[in-house]
Specification:
mainly beta; 7-stranded antiparallel β-sheet; 4-stranded antiparallel β-sheet; 3 helices; about 5% helix; globular; disordered N terminus
């Protein structure tokens, strides 16, 4: 059986993980490419319409232009699934001068709409921190917080229909922001901040900062390195993990994974603890489990594998599934999310590249047995994973594709099987 949404169709495919029943794959939005009528008809008819042409090699006036190819192609990314099951994602639209727009799909009725106002408003979701982009917005608590490309201010907007963005940060601060984390108990965003106030030829300075949601005041929290990324707060808000690196390294060279203790006001206390990374080792994508364990991706073995450490037990990081495969990718952008901790740490859902198989795969690691179950989805490339965990199901939203299907925003719904107690 299949489910269809408009012109895009998804099907049901089996999952092999012992705790998972068959998963349902639904395509929500795909790449749209419209060709002119002359290219869709037969060759003789096309010749008749256009007439014969003679020209030197490479000088023939082709009806296929670069503008034609890209103008109707949407680039999809940055998917999120909200607590109520609603889905958001970002569309980059060449037809609107390449601006990026936040989209929303209702779980209740499937209605899809733009959240970002029309092109004339000037709003374009894109950050210039590190200049590569990513991490330009956060949808949480019924709102979206985002960087606007034109002025690099942080705006907040209700996800409700007809809402208008409101500037949160000051217009003259010469600061850029990315990697938004909502610290709701302290009424603030924790972000990576890139400060250009020095002007001239001086390099911008990077820090981890907090933005007060009531006043828009920006407070520095962590400095001391040339670059920061991937900051995450522990479930109880008492710790903050992040990665940092310095010139001349790139984020896949010598990278540090650090953890800072936070006081009740959310300010760092003492010196941060080095958890992993250092000389000739890169670390990325730290995540906290619900049980307080810290997960991350490291290439200490020569492969980007998944690790876990329990800071309260002062344990050494241990690989969850040591293998000659990549569970990470070069972190050019903010916002990478190639794995998700499940079931209070009993399992981890992950995208990985195994040299023995073509393309990327989606799998589940049983952290108790260090075993890997590969899930059959029909796709061989995956973007950022957005996961909503229920009592008896998982909803996974990502941008996926394969040699046989163009990239599309897809939803995988996986039912969890409860095992009877012995």
């Amino acid at each position: 059986p299949t489910q269809s949404f408009g012109m895009f169709t998804g099907g049901i495919r089996p999952c092999l993980f012992s705790l998972l029943l068959p998963c349902q794959v639904t395509v929500l939005c795909g790449v749209i490419l419209l060709l002119p009528a002359c290219l869709q008809c037969s060759a003789p008819a096309a010749q008749g319409a256009m007439g014969k042409q003679q020209a030197n090699l490479g000088e023939w006036d082709s009806p296929i232009s670069s503008e034609l190819i890209v103008s109707k192609v949407l680039r999809l990314g940055s998917a999120s699934v909200l607590a109520n099951g609603d889905i958001t994602w970002v569309e980059m639209r060449p037809s609107e001068q390449g601006r990026s727009v936040l989209m929303h799909r209702s779980a209740a009725d499937g209605a899809t709409r733009d959240v970002t106002p029309e092109p004339s408003s000037g709003f374009n979701l894109r950050t210039r921190v590190h200049e590569y982009g990513g991490g330009e917005h956060l949808a949480a608590g019924g709102k979206v917080y985002f960087s606007n490309f034109a002025d690099q201010l942080v705006y907040v907007q209700e996800l409700a229909l007809g809402s208008t963005p409101v500037a949160l940060t000051a217009a003259d601060a010469q600061q850029r922001f990315a990697n938004y984390v909502l610290d709701e108990p302290r009424d603030r965003l924790v972000v990576v901040c890139e400060d250009h106030s020095k002007g001239g030829d001086q390099e911008a300075s990077n820090s981890i900062a907090a933005i007060d949601l009531s006043s828009g005041t920006v407070t520095q929290l962590v400095t001391g390195h040339d670059f920061f990324s991937s900051l995450v707060l522990s479930p109880d808000g008492s710790k903050m993990a992040y990665v940092a690196w310095d010139h001349p390294n790139m984020p896949w060279d010598d990278v540090l994974l650090l953890v800072a203790d936070l006081d009740e006001a959310g300010l760092p206390v003492g010196q941060p603890k080095l958890v992993a990374g250092g000389k000739d080792t890169s670390v990325q994508q730290p995540q906290w489990g619900a049980d307080g364990a810290l997960y991350f991706v490291s290439d200490a073995s020569g492969w980007w594998n998944l690790y876990r450490t329990r800071l309260e037990q002062d344990s050494q990081p241990a690989a969850l599934m040591p293998m000659s495969a990549e569970f990470g990718s070069p972190p050019w952008l903010f916002g990478l999310h190639s794995y998700e901790v499940l079931q209070d740490g009993a399992a981890v859902l992950a995208v990985f590249d195994d040299p023995a198989a073509a393309g990327s795969q989606l799998g589940v690691i049983d952290t108790h047995t260090s075993s890997l179950t590969r899930l059959s989805t029909g796709y061989s490339s995956f973007g950022k994973l957005a996961v909503l965990q229920g009592n008896d199901s998982l909803t996974i939203v990502t941008v996926a594709g394969s040699p046989r299907s163009a990239q599309a925003l897809v939803k995988l719904q996986v039912r969890l099987q409860t095992q009877a107690a012995a």
